[in-house]
């Protein structure tokens, strides 16, 4: 599997994503600077976490309009897999590749800790390595991860298996107590219609080493490597 | 010859407003051989402020042990540097932003974090961990809540955006900090031992370059403010506080590290408190050279800025560099790539003088060396802290143990600080082996088994009761916290926060803490490689508890073997060690 | 020409910041605060001197960047 | 009664957001944008019916909470 990680001014988890991809899939991704309008021929594009353009105006808004994103959109249109993590998820919604928006966390504070995630659809190239309903422990680190979409959009996402992950409690119960940021229906990650684009707030790339707290993020990268090789 | 700019004559009032004494002004007259103009006076006032000159503390700081086999660079540069083997070096320092954080907690704390990170990456290191040491007033004081919220949000706001994990810190509450909170921030960076960058300028004729953000009228009185005691109306005066832009700093970090990977830089210095003044004087004095600026070339974001304002501005996210002339275009390309301002604003001279030109006039012309070497040094009187009468255990009322435990657990100093560190991204970079909440945090080094343990420590009430014991205890606690996670302590940085040094009892606390720190450092082979002093933490004549915050760094050869404090399994034996 | 853009959350979109302000005002003893909504206010200085052209331009800026029309409304007016 | 509060940065205070927006507009091809400053806009619904009293109350709210008067100015007006 060949992959690329986009670097915007202000990206800061591109190294983490690089590390996870290299370590879990065995092939190191290419880092692509945002001003390069050429995207290399790859099977997967990762839009990493960080504070692109300082997250000024709205998180991800300015990055969504950068030249490289035109190229990413074009590739996504051709079915190339795109993964947006945290700020990357925000950028993908701002760019219109995924529906909805990410608002300020309900408690208004930045929150960094491990959360429990329930795998809602294990039948995709991103999640094939997980069991349906499996509960993962993965860190979050964001200020604006409160997923919002109107009721009709949310219904549509749910009916078409486009909810990838939900925040839950350790036993898998999807409750308000398990929701760290106020996201609608506890949604932590969603797919596009063809399930070739995934955006999620949690950081699977920071859950690949048991000494750092969890290896539950490896499954996502392994799934991709298997599906795309 | 260019005309010389004169300004309104300097009155005793103006001298006093610049925080200079009549004696200090007499020295200035002697050095200059004439009356200074306002710009020149401003430059003296900054360089001779407590913050830049350490005039009250220098005599005592010399007592601290600063040498050892691992020390590559001790105090005196932007940050301390130690050798951790394999060609790697660790660069670290702690710095205070107390007064600005009291006036505007979010921006004050944020720019404090920004400043200390610049100190570390200026030396060629990539920051890999941030810590802090915070003291607030009584939790019952309504203002405390506002200050805590703002400071914590500001530290997170800046550090999170920079993508540097904030992995540890400490927080105390005590009424003595009601009007003088302490915000001490520490950054630890990793560099190649043979690629450390210093501030000493060299090469007559070499261009001096300004990079980063534009200069505005931010915090023009900041450096003098940081050295002046608070009184009732300082809140009213509301000096322009600096606003931080972590996004620009992130670009500056990446651009500087990219340039440092080439062979372009002769010397580099960040513009911290007292901005262009202290950076240029420091660079040129260390190199024994002069420097000449064309201030019309300085990138500004406001119109009509005077030489005085440009020299004293504390706008953030700026750097001054001396480049090899042949590397200019390479450097310019890098800064353009990162969309940062890049301007040649002057050159090095052999005159030993700082000469500032603007609007076709010479705005200042003064010798560099005396700005540093003739800065006042005071041997202020000290009064020893009287020994406390021992408290006999029998004299204390009997307490029900469970109730006592509950009281302790509910005490704000001991209660969990999870709600604070969860607002900091402590995981970015993906190498945080021991998260906040333990004795020390541990971060793994990239592509290596090695790891660093880091911690900040001080117990101000011990220092208040017995400065010498308290100073020694803070160092010992730091050492213990590092060893407790499995690290070998290597060196420390400190942040000496005290009241008004002109009061003998405060100076006595300072001297006592230093002596205690010295003894502990010598006993433990634990040298001080950098530090910062913040004095005049007083409101209406009442000082804070003496607070010498210690930031310790230790090394683990195999960080995967670091240990945490939690009990791991039922049935495990519990062993109590030590005295 | 100086334009002013107000960006507000659509009704129906939860406003955690507004709610937090309302709550804080209550705690601070300000009574009778029935609702608070927080939005953005952007001042834009334009070279354009033709108001109609400026308006069309600003509309495009709002649609494309300044507002996220999934969750926000915007309004444009001129200062002079 | 509905009040509107505009909170803007004092002149001379760095506005990183405004700068980033201006820059982004330029990159996106919007020409002639000479300056952008970003502020906050807060709508407050009050029970109070007396305008003078409401104004005094809002002044206090701005001073104590809504604006950071070290770096921000505020302006209050009424929607109806
Ligand atoms: N301001 C802070 N920022 C980050 N971590 C903090 C902060 N304050 C306390 N902590 C963390 O909380 C834990 C307990 O702190 P402290 O009570 O000072 O520990 P100890 O006294 O055992 O050294 C430590 O891991 C420390 O790093």
TrEMBL record, chain A:
Transmembrane segments: none annotated. GO terms for molecular function: ATP binding; glutaminase activity; phosphoribosylformylglycinamidine synthase activity. GO terms for biological process: 'de novo' IMP biosynthetic process. It holds the Pfam family GATase_5. The keyword Calcium does not apply. SMART domains: GATase_5. The keyword ATP-binding applies. It catalyses: N(2)-formyl-N(1)-(5-phospho-beta-D-ribosyl)glycinamide + L-glutamine + ATP + H2O = 2-formamido-N(1)-(5-O-phospho-beta-D-ribosyl)acetamidine + L-glutamate + ADP + phosphate + H(+); L-glutamine + H2O = L-glutamate + NH4(+). Keywords: ATP-binding, Cytoplasm, Glutamine amidotransferase, Hydrolase, Ligase, Nucleotide-binding, Purine biosynthesis. Its main location: cytoplasm. One of its GO terms (cellular component) is cytoplasm. InterPro entries: Class_I_gatase-like (IPR029062), PRibForGlyAmidine_synth_PurQ (IPR010075). Pathway: Purine metabolism; IMP biosynthesis via de novo pathway; 5-amino-1-(5-phospho-D-ribosyl)imidazole from N(2)-formyl-N(1)-(5-phospho-D-ribosyl)glycinamide: step 1/2. Its EC number is 6.3.5.3, 3.5.1.2. It is found in: Cytoplasm. The active site is at residues 86, 203, 205. HAMAP family: PurQ (MF_00421). Part of the FGAM synthase complex composed of 1 PurL, 1 PurQ and 2 PurS subunits. Part of the phosphoribosylformylglycinamidine synthase complex involved in the purines biosynthetic pathway. Catalyzes the ATP-dependent conversion of formylglycinamide ribonucleotide (FGAR) and glutamine to yield formylglycinamidine ribonucleotide (FGAM) and glutamate. The FGAM synthase complex is composed of three subunits. PurQ produces an ammonia molecule by converting glutamine to glutamate. PurL transfers the ammonia molecule to FGAR to form FGAM in an ATP-dependent manner. NCBIfam families: FGAM_synth_I (TIGR01737), PRK03619.1 (NF002957). This is Phosphoribosylformylglycinamidine synthase subunit PurQ.
From TrEMBL, chains C, D:
Pathway: Purine metabolism; IMP biosynthesis via de novo pathway; 5-amino-1-(5-phospho-D-ribosyl)imidazole from N(2)-formyl-N(1)-(5-phospho-D-ribosyl)glycinamide: step 1/2. Gene3D superfamilies: Phosphoribosylformylglycinamidine synthase subunit PurS. One of its GO terms (cellular component) is cytoplasm. Keywords: ATP-binding, Cytoplasm, Ligase, Nucleotide-binding, Purine biosynthesis. Its EC number is 6.3.5.3. GO terms for molecular function: ATP binding; phosphoribosylformylglycinamidine synthase activity. It holds the Pfam family PurS. SUPFAM superfamilies: PurS-like (SSF82697). One of its GO terms (biological process) is 'de novo' IMP biosynthetic process. InterPro entries: PurS, PurS-like_sf. The keyword Nucleotide-binding applies. It catalyses: N(2)-formyl-N(1)-(5-phospho-beta-D-ribosyl)glycinamide + L-glutamine + ATP + H2O = 2-formamido-N(1)-(5-O-phospho-beta-D-ribosyl)acetamidine + L-glutamate + ADP + phosphate + H(+). Its main location: cytoplasm. Signal peptide: none annotated. It is found in: Cytoplasm. Belongs to the PurS family. HAMAP family: PurS. Part of the FGAM synthase complex composed of 1 PurL, 1 PurQ and 2 PurS subunits. This is Phosphoribosylformylglycinamidine synthase subunit PurS. It comes from Hypericibacter terrae. The gene is purS.
């Amino acid at each position: 599997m060949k992959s690329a990680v986009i670097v915007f001014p202000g990206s800061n988890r591109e190294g983490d994503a690089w590390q996870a991809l290299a370590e879990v899939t065995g092939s190191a991704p290419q880092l692509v600077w945002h001003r390069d309008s050429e995207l290399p021929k790859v099977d997967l594009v990762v839009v990493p976490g960080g504070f692109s353009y300082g997250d000024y105006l709205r998180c991800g808004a300015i990055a969504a309009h950068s030249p490289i994103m035109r190229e990413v959109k074009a590739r996504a249109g051709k079915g190339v897999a795109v993964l947006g993590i945290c700020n990357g998820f925000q950028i993908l919604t701002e760019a219109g590749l995924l529906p909805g928006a990410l608002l300020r966390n309900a408690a208004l504070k930045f929150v960094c800790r491990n959360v429990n995630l329930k795998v809602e659809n294990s039948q995709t190239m991103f999640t094939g390595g997980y069991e349906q309903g499996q509960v993962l422990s993965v860190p979050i680190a964001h200020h604006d991860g409160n997923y919002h979409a109107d009721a009709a959009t949310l219904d549509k996402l749910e009916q078409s298996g486009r909810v990838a992950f939900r925040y839950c409690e350790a036993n898998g119960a999807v409750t308000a107590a398990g929701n760290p940021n106020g996201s609608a229906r506890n949604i932590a990650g969603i797919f596009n219609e063809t399930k070739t684009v995934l955006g999620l707030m949690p950081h699977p790339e920071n859950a690949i080493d048991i000494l750092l707290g969890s290896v539950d993020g490896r499954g996502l990268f392994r799934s991709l490597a298997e599906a795309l090789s | 010859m260019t005309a010389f700019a004169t300004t309104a004559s300097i009155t005793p009032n103006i001298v006093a407003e610049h925080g200079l004494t009549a004696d200090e002004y007499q020295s200035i007259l002697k050095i200059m051989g004439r009356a200074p103009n306002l710009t020149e006076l401003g430059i003296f006032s900054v360089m001779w402020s407590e913050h830049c000159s350490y005039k009250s503390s220098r005599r005592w700081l010399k007592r601290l042990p600063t040498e050892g086999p691992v020390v590559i660079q001790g105090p005196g540069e932007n940050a301390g540097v130690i050798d951790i083997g394999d060609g790697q070096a660790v660069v670290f320092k702690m710095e205070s932003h107390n007064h600005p954080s009291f006036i505007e907690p979010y921006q004050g704390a944020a720019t404090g974090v920004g400043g200390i990170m610049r100190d570390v990456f200026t030396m060629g290191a990539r920051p890999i961990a941030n810590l802090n040491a915070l003291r607030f007033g009584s939790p019952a004081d309504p203002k405390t809540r506002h200050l805590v919220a703002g400071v914590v949000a500001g530290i997170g706001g800046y550090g999170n955006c920079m993508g540097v994990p904030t992995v540890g810190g400490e927080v105390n509450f005590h009424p003595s900090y009601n009007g003088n909170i302490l915000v001490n921030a520490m950054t630890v960076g990793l560099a190649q031992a043979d690629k450390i960058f210093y501030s000493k300028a060299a090469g007559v004729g070499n261009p001096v370059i300004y990079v980063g953000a534009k200069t505005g009228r931010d915090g023009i009185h900041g450096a003098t403010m940081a050295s002046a005691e608070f009184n009732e109306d300082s809140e009213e005066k509301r000096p322009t506080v600096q606003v931080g832009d972590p996004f620009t700093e992130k670009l500056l970090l990446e651009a500087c590290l990219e340039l440092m990977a080439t062979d372009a830089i002769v010397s580099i210095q960040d513009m911290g408190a007292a901005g262009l003044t202290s950076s240029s004087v420091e660079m040129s004095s260390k190199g024994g050279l002069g420097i000449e600026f064309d201030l019309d070339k300085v990138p500004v974001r406001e119109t009509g800025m005077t030489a005085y304002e440009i020299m004293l501005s504390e706008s953030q996210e700026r750097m001054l560099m001396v480049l090899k002339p042949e590397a200019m275009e390479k450097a310019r390309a890098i800064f353009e790539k990162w969309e940062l301002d890049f301007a040649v604003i002057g050159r090095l001279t052999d005159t030993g003088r700082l000469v500032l030109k603007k609007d076709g006039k010479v705005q200042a012309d003064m010798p560099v060396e005396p700005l540093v070497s003739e800065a006042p040094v005071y041997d202020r009187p000290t009064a020893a802290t009287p020994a406390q009468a021992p408290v006999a255990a029998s004299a204390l009322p009997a307490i029900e143990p469970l109730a006592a435990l509950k009281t302790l657990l509910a005490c704000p100093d001991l209660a969990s600080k999870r709600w604070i560190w969860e607002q900091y991204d402590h995981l970015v970079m993906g190498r945080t082996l021991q998260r906040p909440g333990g004795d020390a945090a541990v971060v793994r080094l990239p592509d290596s088994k090695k790891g660093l343990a880091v911690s900040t420590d001080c117990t101000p009430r011990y220092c208040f009761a017995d400065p010498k014991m308290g100073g020694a205890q803070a160092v010992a606690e730091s050492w213990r916290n590092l060893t407790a996670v499995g690290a070998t302590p290597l060196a420390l940085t400190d942040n000496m926060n005290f009241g008004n040094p002109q009061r003998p009892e405060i100076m006595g606390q300072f001297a006592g803490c230093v002596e205690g720190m010295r003894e502990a450092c010598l006993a433990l082979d634990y040298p001080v490689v950098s530090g910062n002093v913040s004095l005049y933490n007083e409101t209406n004549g009442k000082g804070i508890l003496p607070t010498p915050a210690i930031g310790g760094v230790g090394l683990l050869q195999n960080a995967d073997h670091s240990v945490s404090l939690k009990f791991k399994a039922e049935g495990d034996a519990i062993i109590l060690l030590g005295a | 020409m100086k334009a002013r853009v107000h960006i507000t959350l659509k009704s129906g979109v939860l406003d955690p910041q507004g709610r937090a302000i309302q709550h804080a005002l209550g705690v601070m003893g300000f009574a009778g605060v029935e609702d608070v909504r927080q939005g953005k206010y952007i001042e834009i200085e334009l070279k354009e001197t033709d108001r109609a052209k400026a308006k069309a331009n600003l509309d495009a800026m709002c649609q494309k960047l300044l507002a996220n029309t999934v969750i926000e409304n915007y309004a444009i007016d001129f200062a002079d």
